[in-house]
Automatic annotation (TrEMBL):
This is 1-acyl-sn-glycerol-3-phosphate acyltransferase. GO terms for biological process: phosphatidic acid biosynthetic process. The keyword Acyltransferase applies. It holds the Pfam family Acyltransferase. PANTHER family: 1-ACYL-SN-GLYCEROL-3-PHOSPHATE ACYLTRANSFERASE.
Length: 251
């Protein structure tokens, strides 16, 4: 119920302020289980991705969104509940299997499951390698997979920005259903899971127009953070050396 209340209130405001657009909405079945497999550019994806669909989109989100305390924790819980997020443990191992089972239960009940195969937001607007959980969901549930491409949301609200930029029209493209029936019964084959995942990511690349990077987004983020730290330390070292040289010259 909260999902539809949030959508009824925010929907008209988002349309008026940002003038979002959508293509291929007719590719999403009006009933039955559906996997929406999307790129993840921005926090704004939670708002604009499901905006044009008459059905509820349920996504899986880290449990930390629902365990905060105080006013901030309450707002976080209300928001993520309002946008259709179901809390899961993302610590890996058995938790990953539990998350998969949660996704399968959602699909078994005939609902739409929205999933971001990259696992995290893109750090630079490019499309990164997908994790194979989406392939397992597709093969075990046998639900249709619809590529779900966000457009312009990175430019409008990149990671770290709290307020969206005005003047940038966000969009979403829904591709035609991908057929993986030739792989049914092979969900335990790692090569098959990788092939299915890569096919989904290729479809997203074509829909979104993004440059593809053959590495995981989380690894790219770690590399960027490490490079930024090294650059900061190098700058600090250079400043210290400059000060020492200046002091020596003064003497």
């Amino acid at each position: 119920m909260l999902y539809w209340v949030v959508k009824a209130i925010l929907g008209p405001i988002l349309h008026l302020v940002f003038r979002p657009w959508a293509e291929g909405v007719e590719n999403v079945p009006r009933e039955g289980p559906v996997i929406l497999a999307g790129n993840h550019l921005s926090f704004a994806d939670h708002f604009f991705g499901p905006l044009f669909l008459p059905r509820k989109v349920i996504s899986l989100g880290k449990a930390e969104y629902f365990t905060g305390t105080g006013i901030k924790g309450l707002i976080s819980r209300l928001f993520f509940t309002g946008v259709g997020t179901v809390p899961i443990d993302r610590s890996g191992g058995k938790a990953s299997e539990a998350a998969l089972r949660t996704g399968l239960r959602i699909l078994a009940s005939g609902k739409i499951l929205g999933i971001y195969p990259e696992g995290t937001r893109s750090p630079d607007g490019r499309l990164y390698k997908g994790k194979t959980g989406v392939a397992r969901l597709a093969l075990e549930s046998r639900a249709p997979v619809i590529p779900w491409a966000m457009v312009n949301t990175f430019e409008m609200m990149p990671t770290g920005r709290l307020i969206p930029k005005l003047g940038i029209r966000p969009g979403v493209r829904f591709g035609k259903p991908l057929d993986f029936s030739r792989y049914y019964g092979m969900e335990d084959d790692r090569l098959v899971l990788r092939a299915v995942t890569d096919e989904i990511m290729y479809a997203l690349m074509e829909l979104s127009g993004q440059e593809y990077v053959d590495k995981y987004a989380q690894s790219a983020k770690a590399e960027m953070a490490r490079a930024a730290k090294e650059a900061k330390e190098a700058k600090k070292t250079a400043a210290v050396a400059a000060d020492a040289e200046k002091s020596g010259s003064a003497e």
